[in-house]
Write a sequence for this structure.
């Protein structure tokens, strides 16, 4: 019973410590953030117009590497003669976007999503998955 | 006659060169366990980066390979894993993994919405509750602490703490931690739905502000200082995590960031995984304790999930119009980034236009810090 | 007078700071040897990845660089290679190389045509025959075993075994092993043509079936179990080889596979090569034993090649219509993938439409397993 | 003489062990293979027709990375106007195909065959071999 | 009453778990120093690859993290940096960095114009002059040597020598070396302009001949032999530098070259930087010696720059029509490649059509060899 | 005073050693170089004419990878019909040329110049610098 009390004391202290530490970080973050957001708001007003000027490109960026974009645009221009505009380029299928933790996903999930477009090609027989065997394609 | 005798002795000799006589029934049973782990890792994609090496290490542990792990004796050197396992024994590998994790982690969503740190803190209650349960069913306090940390859903931290407090339980704790991390998409949703109303699940959160490089750098340094001052025993984990993150966010040390994100973490992962697996001998693994640990692990995950969700609901009582969707509370268990994805999926189930992913990343990475703090607290309490 | 005396003593002092007085005639001779090795490695492309570091290590060994290899004494630390060479002494580097080799090897052709395992086994007779020859000309049994393994044509295995059984012969054995592996395209064809008829060389083999992921995974686990049960002393080599291969074939641990195939194997190769080279001092290398070893090495390769070819011919006596082209038997010496290429080239010389490459990969990788088994057997017999 | 006999015994045992171990693996492989090939033969019949439907692509795969194929096809389409079909794309010269041990060749041979098409370009003066010095091109 | 007492003791207990009481005023001051270093590294790009890890290590050193660096005691393992710092203590990391530096360095411009070796030699006078100054203001000879080497502008060499001669000064010496290397574009130009005439600055040099692979390989081997024979104590640095360069120039070991240029150097840089930083405790760093060292460092750089320029002018007295532009003399301090860029910029300021960059690379890489020679000389003189 | 003399002696010896060692290397280099340059001069005469035949290409090499050059030329040929010639291809902006120590610059400066053309794209909001965070683009 004494042991249980001791354990309860340990837990009480421990959970308090965790809450305290993270609350302190919260407080510090909020304080620091205050300083940074004040600055941003002023800038934001100035920057309002130029930002939405390239929506097509911005919408496309999560999945498709920019130099591919350029290549695709060039190909389209060459084919259709210049009067057309690429409005949407999407990487197919189970795209996750390049939200910032993508790298960590890769580490902890262990299946590569797509380092390159190459991974998206249909499997061609037994050799098709060699890129997952670590060989250079 | 003589010829036959020689023949016999030769065969005997041959037999003694082999190790077939050393196979025990526990080994055979463990081969099945290894098979199950391989199946889960390869075909069900349960954290394969860790479970494949762990399972292969377990296979080696359950073959007569004492030559792989024996200590040096006289002029004979030790086995290969006598040396490689030093990285676990001496608590070197987990902080190095954290160096890579820090280099791979973006704390931006947390910095933009620092309230969510409390969700990451609340989820740690699962660790303490499980500690209590483990102590109640007969584990020693140090063992109970090592088991409870499974609820933190953070592999390297679990290995770090288990090695410190209860090295004989390292293998089952690591296996439980990584398996349940992979099971997060199955374990969490029922609990999340049970504890939230439809209306709560539909809460849309304000979009996150962008966070500048300077703010991220200050954050990394600040967390290092605060955590190490308050819980100095967590310094190896938090120090390396924030070193990796500082390298990443400084934007001027790209070579080093890449090395931490790739070379270092990959090589260490192979060694860490197999070192953990190679402790998984039949005698150590095939006993009641392992089953108890696997059971307590599920409980730990469940409580952690529930506490995260409930904390979000409590915080909403004080948040005016800027409500938190309680579905992101469950992400506080860490299990980065799976738990955040679960929040996203559950959120879209209630409202297809609701994007909770980035919001859930806040408690998700807060949970990593929280679990490291808990580990440091346990070490300070018990290991000195 | 005094001034001149000081001048003299100063010059003397200067002279003593240098190491010119320590140069021996053996060193000068070894510089020529190093030059020859550099030439072979750089301009003739004799296994440059190993021979360049070995030769550079040998250059360092034959300069007055005792500061590079001295053991720590009192508060003075040891030399750089005192520490790096521990990876060879403690038998850590060769298994790590095998981890990378496993991650680079496709056992598919062997699994599709497992008969070719016998070809890989037969080629190991070269090891035993050379053992006998070496013992006959005066080497001790342990030395003879380390020399014989050159016939296995497997660098890391040779280094592993030589370090265990006869560390003083490490350098000549490693040099012989890697040099002859590079000479395979010169050494093998005459023997192959001598032992086969034109008709045999024109045999076309049935095309190989594709092998699925699951089958490859089962193969890796099965080989691990069988070899370790029967020859436990080979567990470090076979365990790491099959760990690397399992990571590769699991297709779910790409990061780790790449780390094993690149970072790990490359860095270890630099250290392994230079560590071997730095044992190559004049006193150790410039003696009759080295010449004998180089001679025995050629014999070992020749016998191994012949046995592989002959075994294929023997097997054809029992194979009905599904004949084996005996040219792939020579690939059983391992020396991956050079020996398999030699089979291909010789096959096309007899019949330009015959593609033996993939068929020869079977015995080729079988030879790697076979040589590891032999090494384990020698260790079990002598090293306990 | 006793030593020689001992050595002979050692060799006899040793060679038997090697043959035994590898023969055992053979047996195990054959057994496992039996199970797998039975399955495959049934599938093979069903799959007979669709397999040869993309021979041009299959023939090209050993050397040319699939995303290059796509790019080449797109370029051809753009230039020739769509009525044409790419029937064969080959990487020039001393191509080894991507048979599975290519990676290991690289390790043990030490001269890079081709990680990229770039290696095939003619050397341009002294700077041309910088890719072999490990610098990024 | 009792309850309150318990409450108090609990709080006390909590307090004792934290390390806030261990904060000293020196630590707080050091945080400011760390902040300055971070600012210089991240925003002013002062050698960020080294200064970011050093500064982060210094942050850890000035938090109550004795758990990170404590030696093993009884059955308790040592702290993480007890083990990682062994790479500095045992002088392993700096030679490994040099392995990578060698693989990244092209000695072509030096080989094409070997006269410039004298410029690299002359710049070493800064080291000796600073040694004299340091000895004059009260440092012991060994300390003075370690301080003087800052003038060599070579980070790994400075760390190597400081660790050998004066480990207690390691941190300020490393910080001074890397900071001043970054300041080269500010420190050198005034001195260069002061010591040269407009006409001299306009000298155009003959274009460099191409250098073949064979010549580069011979150079690497020759430098190894000459330096190790004459200054054997430099063998670890020069040996690894030239091993890396030989791998690079052989063109047949691309995998190894890349490993040395990337994986190896990056990972070692993280560990080296943080290991150096973690010695930077307040007590060691906040004293007069540090200020003196920072002051002497500037002097060392200045003298080295001046000597390089002056040597070029002296050499021009004997060079007939094939004059040297004295602006490339300053590049002899090493600080590769910054010092060479400074020469280029200053040259173009006098004559926009003059391209001195490649010419300045000669003395620049000669300075690396020169400083390693000086370090070896100091070690031979003092460390045996 | 004795200490100072001793220090001066040490310096005198030391600086002599450095000058001696590097002068010896100079001598060795010059000697070896003599051998090599004799060979080159003869070759140089033969090679005088072909060398300047591809100035456009040579001028372009510092920044633009040769396989891109080939691709661009092929594309131009395909599009314009063969009668045209590419006279200049330049990589835009802060190009540093590929002088040999570029790799080392990277190590010691820590800011990446350009491993690929992709780095040259304009920053696209907050995500733009992710390539400096080590994530694959
Ligand atoms: Na957690
Ligand atoms: Na073999
Ligand atoms: Na220098």
């Amino acid at each position: 019973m004494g042991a249980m009390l001791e354990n309860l004391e340990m837990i009480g202290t421990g959970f308090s410590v965790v809450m305290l530490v993270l609350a302190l970080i919260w407080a510090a973050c909020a304080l620091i953030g205050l300083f940074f957001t004040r600055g941003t708001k002023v800038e934001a007003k100035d920057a309002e117009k130029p930002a939405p000027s390239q929506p097509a490109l911005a919408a496309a960026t999560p999945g498709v590497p920019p130099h591919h974009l350029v290549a695709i645009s060039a190909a389209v221009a060459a084919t259709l003669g210049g009067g057309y505009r690429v409005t949407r380029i999407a990487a197919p299928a189970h795209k996750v976007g390049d939200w910032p933790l993508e790298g960590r996903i890769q580490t902890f999930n262990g299946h590569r999503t797509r380092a390159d477009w190459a991974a998206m090609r249909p499997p061609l027989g037994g050799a098709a998955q060699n890129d997952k065997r670590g060989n250079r394609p | 006659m003589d010829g036959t005798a020689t023949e016999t002795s030769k065969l005997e000799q041959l037999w003694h060169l082999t190790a077939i006589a050393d196979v025990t029934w526990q080994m055979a049973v463990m081969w099945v366990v290894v098979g199950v782990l391989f199946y889960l890792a390869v075909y069900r994609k349960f954290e394969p980066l860790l479970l494949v090496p762990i399972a292969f290490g377990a296979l080696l542990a359950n073959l007569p390979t004492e030559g792989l792990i024996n200590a040096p004796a006289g002029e004979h050197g030790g086995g290969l894993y006598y040396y490689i396992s030093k990285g676990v024994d001496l608590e070197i590998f987990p902080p190095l993994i954290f160096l890579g994790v820090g280099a791979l982690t973006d704390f931006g969503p947390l910095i933009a919405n620092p309230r969510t740190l409390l969700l990451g803190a609340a989820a740690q209650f699962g660790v303490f509750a499980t500690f209590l349960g483990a102590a109640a069913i007969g584990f020693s306090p140090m063992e109970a602490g090592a088991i409870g940390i499974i609820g933190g859903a953070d592999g390297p931290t679990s290995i770090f703490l288990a090695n410190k407090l209860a090295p004989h339980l390292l293998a089952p704790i690591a296996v439980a931690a990584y398996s349940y991390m992979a099971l997060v998409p199955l374990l969490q949703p029922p609990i999340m739905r049970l504890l939230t109303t439809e209306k709560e699940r539909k809460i849309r959160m304000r979009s996150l502000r962008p966070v500048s490089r300077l703010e991220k750098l200050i954050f990394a340094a600040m967390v290092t200082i605060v955590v190490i001052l308050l819980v100095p025993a967590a310094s190896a984990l938090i120090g390396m995590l924030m070193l990796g993150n500082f390298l990443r966010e400084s934007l001027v040390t790209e070579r080093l960031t890449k090395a931490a994100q790739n070379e270092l973490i990959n090589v260490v992962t192979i060694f860490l995984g197999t070192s953990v697996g190679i402790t998984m001998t039949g005698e150590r693994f095939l006993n009641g304790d392992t089953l108890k640990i696997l059971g307590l692990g599920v409980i730990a995950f469940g409580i952690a999930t529930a506490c995260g969700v409930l904390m979000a609901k409590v915080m909403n009582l004080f948040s005016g119009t800027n409500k938190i969707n309680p579905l992101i509370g469950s992400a506080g268990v860490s299990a980065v980034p799976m738990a955040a994805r679960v929040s996203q999926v559950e959120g879209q189930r209630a409202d297809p236009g609701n994007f909770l992913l980035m919001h859930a990343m806040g408690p998700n990475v807060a949970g990593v810090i929280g679990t490291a703090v808990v580990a440091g607290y346990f070490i300070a309490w018990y290991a000195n």
Chain A has four helices and no strands. The interface with chain E takes residues 9, 13, 16-17 of chain A (CB under 8 Å).
